[in-house]
Amino acid sequence: MALCCSTFFFPALFSILFSAAALCASQKVPNYTFMRNATAAPDISYYDYIVIGGGTAGCPLAATLSQNYSVLLLERGGSPYGNPNITNLAAFGAALSDTSPTSPAQRFISEDGVINSRARVLGGGSCLNAGFYTRASPQYAREAGWDGGAVNESYEWVEKVVAFEPEVKQWQSAVREGLLEIGVVPNNGFTYDHIGGTKVGGTIFDHQGFRHTAADLLQYANPSAITVLLHATVHRILFRVKDGSKPMAHGVVFRDSLGRKHKAYLNRHPKSEIILSAGALGSPQLLMLSGVGPRQHLRAHNISVTFDQPLVGQGMSDNPMNAIFVPSPQPVEISLIEVVGITSFGSYIEAASGENFAGGSPRDYGMFSPKIGQLSRVPPKERTPEAIAKATEAMQGLEQAAFRGGFILEKIMGPISSGHLELRTRDPNENPSVTFNYFQDPVDLERCVQGLSTVEKIIESKAFAPFRYPNMPLAMLLNMTANSPVNLLPKHSNSSLSLQQFCRDTVMTIWHYHGGCQVGKVVDRDYKVLGVDALRVIDGSTFNYSPGTNPQATVMMLGRYMGLQILTQRLRATAADQTQQ
């Protein structure tokens, strides 16, 4: 059977990322007696701490604070439990391709034209991602001002519940051996640590193929001291303003799924706080909706200014990812990210693969579907239903062999390029406008080129030879990726000749976007919002650059770490007050 380039890329993405493989047996669902729908919440309530956002940072943070104090955790989405599109590895990508109003993933389109996704579910991005678990480097922790011992203890606290060693099979083994063959050394074996060379990292999927998320960390919570409300959308943070003093956060207004308004207030104590953990889009958005942001921008939306902070929403970055699809002459395992090559030039090499699951599967093509336009940078007005339907139709009759193979991808560190976030409306359910400025800095583009050159060397390595058709040169593979109907980008004839153009034409997100409430600009090193009292931001929006090869381990660690720091600070303050008395 002749294998044509154009038949491979699109369905292979679907196969790998939205497989219809048989689902595993039911996963055990935790019995969280403290979790309920926000419709059951009282109109007014009081807590020592209010955490906004039950995501990757918010869950471990709330669980930790509940050991000593009453905590309200507000999550705008629902529960991940009982949803096989979240919990089963074989269904990876299904949640991301779900664009319904109740989807755990809320699609957004950056002003760059790359379509992206933000979490709308308890557990946050850990419910949607490819599951790779790896720590940040010790240097990252030092630069953040974190205590190394406490950081390691916090990682271990997380890892006892959600991290596992993957079972590395043939495709991932070939990528690993290829990396070593071309000089991405040493071989560091299996480790959670961020070490230069080639390693096998952790995964949040267990050996039965079940995903474990940040929501699982709520098992550490004190059930008598924590309340978790689902489908609770916070509309604004309330501030008390007295003459001559900083505005003080003292409550929140949220609405349940029926639109009913509720208010939650802090208990009257100088150490009680509201903590924003709504993510890189949600946290700066909610600060602005609450009157903390650039004065002129807030006034343009008729928002009363609580504190003029022009740096809210600035420094938005997303690590660009580029991939090359490699059709395989033999079946390969379903695998997400397991092996990583940490290069010396600022690019991370990873891979994913999938068998042929075309038969009987819903033809939605997962997170790279033209219906969600994962790679699309075409202007929004040209993203018509007709164009999407045409791209989808092009895949309908493709041969079974087109679904066999995998991807080798590169993601750059940093990045250096950054953009900004602004409000579109005053509705917290609506996405803000965000610009990432992919490859604006030439260093980012050069790292992409070097990373793709490394991917090319792996493809041509002896170790990878069993998974590559000998009659398909690299130029053909590049053209297959660049010219596939997976996106609505204008095509460039030189994409396979110019890696710079290939980087720009095939840029994707790997959902590691961050910034908007950065340390030193919007928050201090204790993550307290500058210019106001009793308010912190603890999540990826505070990062100046992305930690390690995947940020989720560090975001979960940060929730635990800062929870302990807050408890310690409050204990010391109480002891000092008692001494003075």
From TrEMBL:
User: Could you tell me which cysteines form disulfide bridges?
Assistant: 448-503
Tell me the SUPFAM superfamilies matching this sequence: FAD-linked reductases, C-terminal domain, FAD/NAD(P)-binding domain
Q: Which UniProt keywords apply?
A: Disulfide bond, FAD, Flavoprotein, Signal
The family database entries (PROSITE patterns) matched by this protein are listed as: GMC_OXRED_2 (PS00624)
Name the domain of life. Eukaryota
Check the record and name the Pfam families matching this protein. GMC_oxred_C, GMC_oxred_N
- Domain Glucose-methanol-choline oxidoreductase N-terminal stretches: 279-293
Tell me the leader sequence span: 1-26
Q: Which InterPro entries match?
A: FAD/NAD-bd_sf, GMC_Oxidoreductase-Related, GMC_OxRdtase, GMC_OxRdtase_N, GMC_OxRtase_C
Keyword Acetylation applies: no
GO terms, molecular function: flavin adenine dinucleotide binding; oxidoreductase activity, acting on CH-OH group of donors
Q: Where does FAD bind?
A: 121, 234, 511-512, 540, 551-552
Q: Could you say which cofactors this protein requires? A: FAD
Q: To which protein family does this belong?
A: Belongs to the GMC oxidoreductase family.
Name used for this protein in its record: Glucose-methanol-choline oxidoreductase N-terminal domain-containing protein
